[in-house]
């Protein structure tokens, strides 16, 4: 059996702090397919894998550099 590093799951407030985007903007981007969707953990609980958000941020930086 292969052992993998545990992934941390981040709440919306952490995502907002990392991306400097508001809750409404994040969910708008999700609806448009431009931001990773969260993992639903319960009826009112959603979290994002930290690695997925880190990758999204890296893509935004790369796209910004490419268009500059």
Task: Please tell me about this protein's structure.
This protein has 68 residues and is an alpha+beta fold. It has one domain (9-67): Recoverin, domain 1. It has helices at residues 12-19, 23-31, 50-67; strands spanning 9-10, 39-42, 45-49. Strand 2 (39-42) and strand 3 form a beta hairpin.
Summarize the SSE layout with pairings.
Blueprint: E1 9-10, H1 12-19, H2 23-31, E2 39-42, E3 45-49, H3 50-67
Summarize the structure.
With 68 residues, the protein is an alpha+beta fold. It has one domain (9-67): Recoverin, domain 1 (Orthogonal Bundle), CATH 1.10.238.
The CATH class designation is: Mainly Alpha
Shape category: globular
- Sequence of secondary-structure elements: EHHEEH
Poorly predicted regions: none
- The helix/strand class is alpha+beta
The order of strands across the largest sheet is 1-3-2
CATH arch. level architecture: Orthogonal Bundle
Largest sheet: 3 strands, antiparallel
Give the averaged pLDDT, no decimals: 93
Find the CATH topology: Recoverin, domain 1
Radius of gyration, CA atoms, in whole angstroms: 13 Å
End-to-end Cα distance, whole Å, is 46 Å
């Amino acid at each position: 059996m292969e052992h993998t590093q545990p992934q941390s799951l981040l709440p919306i407030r952490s995502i907002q702090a990392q991306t400097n985007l508001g809750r409404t903007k994040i969910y708008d981007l999700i609806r448009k397919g431009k931001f990773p969707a969260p993992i639903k953990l319960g009826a009112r609980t959603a979290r994002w894998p930290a690695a997925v958000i880190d990758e999204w941020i890296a893509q935004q930086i790369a796209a910004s550099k490419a268009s500059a």
